[in-house]
Records
---
Amino acid sequence: MFPLVVDDRDKPFGWGWNHDSPNFDLSDLSVPEALTFALVEQHLDKSFPPATLDALQLWFKSARQALREMDTGAQTNIWLCKVRTIAPMQALLVPQVDAQCQREVYDALMRDRQLKLSYKKRDVKTVLVYESVHPLAVIQRRPLIYLVCLFAGYDDVRMLAMHRMQAAEMQYLPSRKKTGF
């Protein structure tokens, strides 16, 4: 009845909740809640830090399950087929973003820490290493994600394309802020 797992390598045994199981909640998701989570998953997936998305996966799974259990002709399921977000520009091929690199960048942005970045500029064969990057914000212009930042020793705001980042490492130094940004 409950998706419990046991780690029986040592005594006493360790018990835990299976991470792939749906949320255990005494009340099911309501129709508005399920619809909200379904739309968030479809349209805002690139706007959340990866750790937050990881934490929301059980809610997304519960929402999909709740919507599946509804009548296929239900207005909610029909609504999901009728709503789309289309970028106001020519459709571009989606560039591949290194997931670990994105995770480090988002984590540094959230914690106000500096980054060390390996970055490959367009039309340049060598990878540049920026020792001290101060993240300010992330901009998503579908399908592209940009890091808005300051470089060490400079006060002008720069934008770096996330898909051009080869490696990112969060430093344990606080990042600078741009006055009025």
---
Amino acid sequence: MMKKYIRCTLTFLLVAFLTSPVLPQSQDFETHMVAMRDSVRLATHVFRPAGTSHGAVLIRTSEKQERYTNVARRFVRAGYAVAIQNTRGRYGSEGVDSLFFDDGWGKRQDGYDTVEWLAKQPWSAGKVACFGVGIDGFLAYQVVSSAPPGLTTAYVVSAPYDFYQDALFPAGAFRKEFADVWFREHSGTALTTLFEDYARLSRFWLPLLNSRRASEVRVPVAHVTGWYDAFFNGAWRAFSINRRKARGLGKKYQKLIIGPWAGGLDAIGKRKQGELTFPDDAAFDVLADATRWFDQWLKQEDTGILYETPVRYYLMSSAGESFAPGNEWREAGEWPPDAKNVRFYLSMNGMLQRDKKDKNDTAEGYRYNPENPVPTVGGATVYYQPGPRDQQQVEKREDVLLFTTEPLSFPMTVAGRIRLKLYAASNMLDTDFTAKLTDVYPDGRSMLVADGIVRARYRKSLQDEKTLSPNRVTVFEIDLGHTAIVFNEGHRIRLAISSSNSPRFEANPNTPTPFHQNTHMFTAVNSIYYGGKKASYLYLPIVPSADE
């Protein structure tokens, strides 16, 4: 019996070994301690193909290198050496964790130095590409911005471009859902508390603003993101700014791919997003596409990339409705595409309509209690159940105001940036205002499309604070982000306004005290105005149909 058991076990292990995708053999897996310009050595794990290497792919990360094991397998099989390097003070690398301040173009330039080291290795063929996902994608942008001569191209997925506004403080509001987890993972460094000391955009953040270095970019870059990606603005801004300011091939060949996805490798390219499942063509093999991109620029193969339009985006539509228009890939020369910005006015009785029918100023108020904030339900979160999710439960709250169109008599295509011009007042010196755009299905589901926030003290500038005059009507602009969607016939378009979305954004305590220094929280009485001279309205970029 025991012999039979051992024989079966050995057979199982042999079959598993022969059929499993294994890494290159041990002689092709090496760990190098690569010296930076200040002699600090960084642990760099190199995987090499059995045959000729056509270039090296650099992945810099502050996480365990095992995160990229499957990525390394794919690129090695395509004929590339892969170098996974841990940043300072992380998982075998020497030095002190500097949270990116040594990775860009300052006194120490670890990304630059690593690229130049790779370019000199005989198995790199003198060509180096960068790859990164999420915060590691930000590290890839740092390498691109430092412009090492040995860098040939980059492929970046779901990443911030400027760390302040794309990652931590969009519109001045603290992205608590992301920061709490990320700070905890980096608890060994005192720099995590520094971010709390610099809650407004100041000189402190300059080394982490890649947009300042766009004119130094010389290489083609592919940017991949999704409509529910927390770092969508990073990809879009990197693409747009590089298209304007980069030089040479970097200016000519920037690629932007946007799917119906949340962010990160676990969501990018998947059909199931949140509570919706998109059709088969929403699936996307991001590593296959990255390999194709590298084949073009490292192997110099004609993959067709040179002839493609710069932007490829997925036009979402109703999920599960037969013959719904949309749910298809489209191409464009730029993002946003050509569209007509149409105003949808907030009106009495919770209506949202094109015509400005209310002649008199009207106000509706609610009490915002930061100790009982509106809970986050889906959206562009990093860790907290991202994607399109039904908002009906939170829409029932007394601190949420709803404005909804009549059922549409024909499909309406919206593609571009969503903005809300809001006339509002508060009895406090500081507060937040939030907005959500949803697709209301005939069965009542209110599926999140896009959302945004503005912190009152930063309504004019992220650099300078300006508190409110209590109870005085003030004009705000809320950026709800970008989308591409067909609101189908029979559906309604809804705008929900409130003052919190927690834990995605930390609830504003409604005080003018510096960030995280308040000792008390106060309930705010906030009012929304519409009609007359204080006509709040939603900007929707509508794409005309072919027969219009």
